[in-house]
Amino acid sequence: MNSSAHPYNTSNYEQLMETIKACFSVLDFIICTAFSVLIIGTVRRSADLRKEVRYFLLSHHLVFLTLFFGFGAVFSGIRALQVNAPRLACWTIFAVQIVVGRGLLLTLTLMSLNACIAICWPLKHLSIVYMVKFKMMVCLWILALLDPVVSLIYESISTSPEEIVQLDPSCPSSLNSIPARIAGVVFIVLLVILMAISYVLIYREAKHAGHLNSANKAARNTIVIHGLQITLHIIPTLIVIGIGRNPKLWALNLANFIIFSFAQCFSPIVYGLRCKELQCKLLTMYRICCCSPQATSSNVELQPSPGHSLE
Known about the structure:
The protein has 311 residues and is mainly alpha-helical. It has eleven helices and two strands, in the order αααβαααβααααα.
């Protein structure tokens, strides 16, 4: 069904919701950009960090996160201001945001798989990861682009040229159909399964090695924090896919978005700044204070060597 076929009858509440979403997206964009510049700049200046795949994936994750809120601010801003933008422009902006959002989930999954391989198969980690590193990134982009691009093409083909370029203050999306929602849910569920398997294997390996005990809670805390962060990414996304743009559920939609955006601002901290190795490089390069020798090891003791931590 063409999501733009219905006339747009917005209410004051919906316009208020889009205004709040645009403001939150701008704020999130600023915060994530600051963290991304700080962390990615530190990684690029350090030869040791550049060699590690987890920081390579972290850098991509931060770029995706920043772009997601950037395009989200543009899309919500157009809706809030009721700009008479062409439908094709709105479809394209929203499709790009969805591609970036899928990139977020894919990088989270790859980070989990990388940690799992490093901990469960430490001797084979480097050979496995570096063998598939570039192929993995190509597959990441293909998977992220596939469904949004197909939906955008389908929407363009099923709509007359006059309607495609027609100015529409509702700024409709191109992924509001039932097949697009089902494809989105399947995509998320598959990635969640992969992440869950990775953390289960990490837990089993650490428990077998005797690390998860009362004397050492760092690794267990990391698994809990990562799991909570992933949950706050997955559940709001599924809610958005489920309810779509339902005017009657605008309050739920807004609350869901605020929770999601607030949680994602902590991604650079959860996956980056909690790592003592990265903290050490930050303190050293920006001359805040000296780094002690003990701070070079990761605060997660699940890793088989200092170079491969869960974080």
